[in-house]
């Protein structure tokens, strides 16, 4: 952590706002003090910040986080401006500029959008800007978020090829049980899944946030699985965490860097349909990393368009992979069981291609 030259820091809503939903100026300034100090050492910082919906509660006169989607989106629309304005003012004390970057899962899933987001973040860092990243809550339709900002932070870590990820919360570490329960012990280090056996993971109880320890551990697994170390601790311990002190929980890295877009496909999307494969197709995709051809598909479910993510299911009903399909759901039934050459000769040359190209297929975790 102390030697990382590019760091992603994620902070949750409860660490930035009052219980009434207003931005806590002192908390924001305290976090910015820490990040600005690290920037002065030459480290590039990307801040993934929750708090847009929470920051909108006060201005809208709401006493609690709304449950309906339309009001959540309205709160995010108002709150995002409040949040970024506060960061702009706070970082300006150190002559640092910030840039707002709002992302959706779709931005990372599609080739052109993914490349554009990557270029934008890289250029902001080159220009000395501190990117403030959040999900674009005002247009999200799947319960306001694709998952949570913990997972978003892990995926942004790969998007910018960061050296480390720091997850800041209102809990100072991961414990083997509820922190409030007598006898619960801090887990200083996590080296692998075996260290989490028997650990009770649950919500942190914050009224204005959406995450909990489950989402943070999932985010740590995404990052460490591709070789990036993670520290989970309280926002009050941000300076110590960035300095490499023994605070919070340190998740040891493992694995190697896979393609960033495939990480998003695996962790930031859900299949919008299902393709049932015969055993030969499963072996070709999972074992030999081949493309999916129409001849290996036995059935199709769902309503999806070309370019959408679909899950690939084996004969036993187990989903083994996910991919970006090249045809609409309505086209596929007429292609099943036929070779691409046959399809090209009867339907035209545009059908002499894969249902899903191997570069657009990710093998899901249990089958890696």
From TrEMBL:
Which InterPro entries does this chain map to?
Answer: AceGlu_kinase-like_sf (IPR036393), Asp/Glu/Uridylate_kinase (IPR001048), G5K_ProB (IPR041739), Glu/AcGlu_kinase (IPR001057), Glu_5kinase (IPR011529), Glu_5kinase/COase_Synthase (IPR005715), Glutamate_5-kinase_CS (IPR019797), PUA (IPR002478)
Protein EC: 2.7.2.11
Q: What positions does the domain PUA occupy?
A: 273-352
Q: What are the UniProt keywords, alphabetically? A: Amino-acid biosynthesis, ATP-binding, Cytoplasm, Kinase, Nucleotide-binding, Proline biosynthesis, Transferase
This protein's record includes keyword Transcription regulation: no
Q: Which CDD domains match?
A: AAK_G5K_ProB (cd04242), PUA_G5K (cd21157)
Q: What is its main location?
A: cytoplasm
Spell out the GO cellular component terms annotated for this protein, sorted alphabetically and separated by semicolons.
cytosol
Task performed by this protein: Catalyzes the transfer of a phosphate group to glutamate to form L-glutamate 5-phosphate.
Fetch the HAMAP family from UniProt.
ProB
Protein name, please?
Glutamate 5-kinase
Organism of provenance: [Actinomadura] parvosata subsp. kistnae
Biological classification of the source: Bacteria, Bacillati, Actinomycetota, Actinomycetes, Streptosporangiales
